[in-house]
Amino acid sequence: xxxxxKRPTYSxxxxxxxxxxxxxxxxxxxxxxxxxxxxxxEILSEYERLGVEVVWFTPHIMEDVPxxxxxxxxxxxxxxxAYSGSIKLNLAxxxxxxxxFDQRLKDNDLLTLGHEGNQxxxxxxxxxxxxxxxxxxxxxxxxxxxxxxxHPERYRYIADIEGYRRLxxxxxxxxxNLGSITGVYGQTAHRKALMLIKEGVYDxxxxxxxxxxxxxxxxxxxxxx
Length: 225
Ligand SMILES: [Fe+2]
Fold this sequence. Notes:
- By secondary structure, this protein is of the alpha/beta class.
- It has one domain (18-219): Alpha-Beta Barrel (TIM Barrel).
- 36% of the residues lie in helices and 15% in strands.
- It is built from 8 helices and 9 strands.
- The protein has helices at 37-50, 69-82, 99-106, 133-142, 161-170, 178-182, 187-199, 212-219; strands at 20-21, 54-57, 60-61, 88-91, 94-96, 119-123, 146-150, 173-177, 204-206.
- The chain has a 6-stranded parallel sheet. A 3-stranded parallel sheet has the order 1-2-4, with helices on one face.
- Strand 7, helix 5 (161-170) and strand 8 form a beta-alpha-beta unit.
- Residues 23, 25, 94, 150, 208 line the site of fe (ii) ion.
- Fe (ii) ion (FE2) binds next to loops.
């Protein structure tokens, strides 16, 4: 088991050697994640110490947090200018599948995840699937893009492995949150993450870090490779 009630005597810090963080909210002042540039730089310096090599910033874009591509690029440039370390920094986004996303998709106004430039990190409400979710996923793919579903283990509306297999069979990729296997999102997400690891269906891993506290929790937990 990977969920500890007591603080373990070992850490998962080795896990981060050569790690790519495909999902985090470290770009400052643009969503509910990190607020200040100093805090971003502090996390990046901790990442560097741990051996993280690549970070994809994935700020929220949704109707409630309508970040524009241009404003995020500007903020990203400011952070890059202030950062002098060795981690390779990249900008993508975490898109809520809502009306704003439909518009951005229509306008081809999307920040992609990964160096191929053809993957889109998407999320939904934890409780309910968006209306016409499969139709939206197919629209993404009809543009030659691949949807990467952020933290699939956290969605309550996907009840069993068949629901996950259905998405996989459509061509949807999965990104696991490291916090899920530490138990920070509760027992259901923890159990589902272990089930999906066993199923071998995760393509990417991310911290979904909103502040440095979550990193410390992750570091206190043994993570399966
Ligand atoms: Fe996120």
